[in-house]
Amino acid sequence: MNSLMSSLLEDFPLTDLRDEDIPPMFSEVKEEGWSYTPNGARVLTGLLPENHSPYFDVLQEETSINGRGMIDYDLPATGAERTEALLRRSLSYAFACLGKAGERFGDQEVKAYVSLSLGGCDDDTMTAYVTFCTPNPNAAPYVRDLENVQNEAIIELSLEDRDAWR
């Protein structure tokens, strides 16, 4: 994780992450589980597009299909309550989906990336994004030099990280 995420987790020391923290739409995606595409990409079945686009490589396919902004319409526009809820929702969703990936693929290769950053028209609204991909030793990582990312709080998670959040 980078220093911005480290600071967020100090401000909001989340424990007891539960499936109940996941918004219904994301919970449905988690329940549909994982699939392989014809290219061998590991994707959340509920996020597969009807029309398949060509992708540069498996990493682009996985991150394009699996990535989503976290639901926030029901949260306050600003403040600590918004940030904490986005963080809780995103981490709960990430770990739940990683658990399903472990069951489906029989390994812990899929990684989750959770990021929070300021966005909106005036760059004053905290937003969150979650995506999943499988690192390939023969390709560049999804996020290069994660610890030095400056414009967002970001963390890479694996299924084995889940126990630290319970």
Explain this structure.
The chain is of the alpha+beta class and 166 residues long. The chain contains four helices and six strands. The chain has helices spanning 3-11, 24-32, 58-66, 80-105, and strands spanning 34-36, 42-44, 68-69, 111-119, 125-133, 153-157. The strands form two sheets. It has a four-stranded antiparallel β-sheet with strand order 3-5-4-6. A two-stranded antiparallel ribbon has the order 1-2. A hairpin with a 5-residue loop joins β4 (111-119) and β5 (125-133). The chain is globular and about 45 Å long.
Poorly predicted segments = none
How many β-strands, per DSSP?
6
Helix content: 25-40%
Summed over residues and divided by their number, the pLDDT gives a mean of 93
- Topology pattern, helix = H, strand = E: HHEEHEHEEE
The backbone outline, from C-alpha atoms, is globular
Strand fraction band?
15-25%
If you compute it from the alpha carbons, what radius of gyration comes out, rounded to the nearest whole angstrom? 15 Å
Q: Indicate the structural class.
A: alpha+beta
The strand order across the widest sheet is 3-5-4-6
Query: How far apart, in Å, are the first and last alpha carbons?
Result: 18 Å
Largest sheet: 4 strands, antiparallel
Q: List the total number of helices.
A: 4
